[in-house]
Write a structure and sequence with these properties.
291 residues, alpha+beta, 7% strand, four-stranded antiparallel beta sheet, 11 helices
Length: 291
């Protein structure tokens, strides 16, 4: 409904303007004053306003600005960073409620609660997977198995003297297979990172290159893994074209794309490494292994 979209968009823009005003207008609750660092001249750091009692001397490193006495803040981030979660929540929840009211989908507070519950129900699989992945990682760190496997695997890889290209291809294939059983990208990476990043660093592969290979293996199989949380949405769109189609039809249709994407992205990565082009600013391809 265009009418509901127009009204909710106006409310969203108004809320965004209010948030920006709170962040950028001096003296507002979320505004962060900045002064020159006393230890690193030319570098600006966050500052806090201090008030002195009668006869109290000014703190060391304080600067007077706009009639205010400022001292370097112990917080390295601006004030609005601490409030980013409630800010994002408020900016989006208000236009959403306005849209629901205009569309007559929200008639009471019970409707808001029901819609919020339905939205969280769609994220249930990710939340559950993140919980168990967090427990797995913490127990892994506590037992020291991550360091043991990283050191043992790194030494084994160093002794085999396999080329970097072969290691990257093997890691991509392993990620593709693992993606068929764990759909969450972050959950897989929290399990892979403590093991494979230090393991590959010991044979001279930079963490940036390891993550790049991981993202290739994770992305190309997203369209065929049954555990993809968006598989239901893909099936719903496919039903518009093939009403009798199901999961098998979708996977068989997308499998050729997966094969082509795997070959193209892997070849692109290998050529990129062969040319020695950095992956980005300070995105190194090699890492000096420990002696």
């Amino acid at each position: 409904d265009w009418r509901a979209l127009k009204i909710s968009t106006c409310v969203f823009i108004a809320g965004l303007v209010v948030v920006l005003a709170l962040i950028m207008i001096p003296g507002s609750p979320l505004y962060t004053y900045q002064i020159e660092s006393p230890t690193n001249p030319g570098q600006m750091v966050a500052a806090e306003v201090v008030e002195l009692a009668d006869g109290q001397a000014s703190p060391k490193g304080s600067v007077e600005q706009d009639g205010l006495l400022l001292v370097p803040s112990a917080n390295i981030f601006p004030r609005w960073v601490k409030a980013i979660v409630p800010l994002v929540f408020i900016v989006f929840i208000i236009p959403g409620i306005v849209y629901g009211v205009v569309q007559k989908k929200i008639r009471s507070d019970r409707d808001v609660t029901r819609l919020l519950t339905d939205s969280m129900a769609g994220m249930a699989s990710i939340i559950v997977m993140a919980f168990f992945a967090g427990q797995f990682v913490e127990h892994f760190k506590y037992s020291g198995l991550d360091k043991m496997l990283a050191m043992t695997g790194g030494q084994a890889l160093g002794q085999t003297a396999l080329p970097t290209s072969l290691l990257l291809v093997a890691f991509i294939l392993m990620t593709m297979c693992f993606n068929m059983f764990v759909g969450s990208m972050s959950a897989k990476y929290t399990m892979f990172a403590p093991i494979f990043i230090p393991m590959f660093m010991m044979v001279g592969i930079a963490p940036e290159l390891t993550q790049c290979a991981y993202r290739i293996g994770d992305s190309v199989t997203n369209c065929i893994t049954p555990l993809n949380p968006y598989m239901v949405i893909m099936l719903a769109f496919m039903k518009n074209i093939a009403p009798k189609g199901g999961m098998g039809t979708l996977i068989s249709t997308m499998l050729p794309f997966t094969i082509v994407f795997t070959i193209v992205w892997t070849l692109l990565l290998l050529v990129w490494v062969w040319l020695g082009i950095p992956l980005g600013p300070d995105g190194h391809l090699v890492y000096p292994p420990p002696n």
